[in-house]
Amino acid sequence: MKGLFKSKPRTPVDIVRQTRDLLIYAGRSPDSREAKREEKMAELFKNIRELKCILYGNSESEPVSEACAQLTHEFFRENTLRLLITCLPKLNLEARKDATQVVANLQRQQVNSRLIASDYLEANLDLMDILIAGYENTDMALHYGAMLRECIRHQTVARYVLESQHMKKFFDYIQLPNFDIAADAAATFKELLTRHKSTVAEFLSKNYDWVSVVPPLLSSFKFSLQNITQSCWNLATILREDKLSRYNP
């Protein structure tokens, strides 16, 4: 008789909704009177792992397109991404890694032939401010940096970052004493200058003096000289191509 009353398997939509509720809970100030907080956080970590398994598959099965589409649609239907980003510091290390992979994967998921992550981010560009500022937090820098690189795959997001006041901060981040964080910032900087050439060319044509801040970086050995040299070469190439396009419309 017991077998007749087995609980119904959770759908991807169910998991996203429950994760959203748990993230809202996690975002509250810790209350020592809440004896179940640890239990709820463990449930949140488990849910995030399940989201990752749906999107990436596991050792036993490949990801199912329909399940991924359902998950993605529900994830961006409300502010689950915002909740996940803002609550990331409250997660343990493994859950942070899983969350970073979930966010990365969702940037590539299509629903009805549309990258709905791009639409969501276009309406919530302030999330990039949080991700960029993450480089100032040693514990969060690599997670937020990885998320940021995936988000700037979308041209609208890349344009926002390029034109924001945050752009010059990368020159500070690239010179941070923590080599891993500095290298991650350099990777993001390079992505910004190479992912969307037309957007970069437009930005540089309006801010030509901006490139003058690049040479001082060459005197610093706190990070990979090769990365910055490559970035400078990319800048020169983009400027040259833009100039040629002006003379050869």
UniProtKB/TrEMBL annotation:
The UniProt entry, under SUPFAM superfamilies, shows: ARM repeat (SSF48371)
Write out the GO biological process terms: intracellular signal transduction
Q: Which Pfam families match?
A: Mo25
Domain of life here?
Answer: Eukaryota
Supply the InterPro entries for this chain. Answer: ARM-like, ARM-type_fold, Mo25
Query: Gene3D superfamilies, per this entry?
Result: Leucine-rich Repeat Variant (1.25.10.10)
Signal peptide (from-to)? none
GO MF entry, a single one = protein serine/threonine kinase activator activity
Describe the family membership recorded for this protein in Swiss-Prot or TrEMBL: Belongs to the Mo25 family.
Q: What is this protein called?
A: Proteinase inhibitor I25, cystatin
Source organism of this protein record: Gossypium australe
Source species taxonomy: Eukaryota, Viridiplantae, Streptophyta, Embryophyta, Tracheophyta
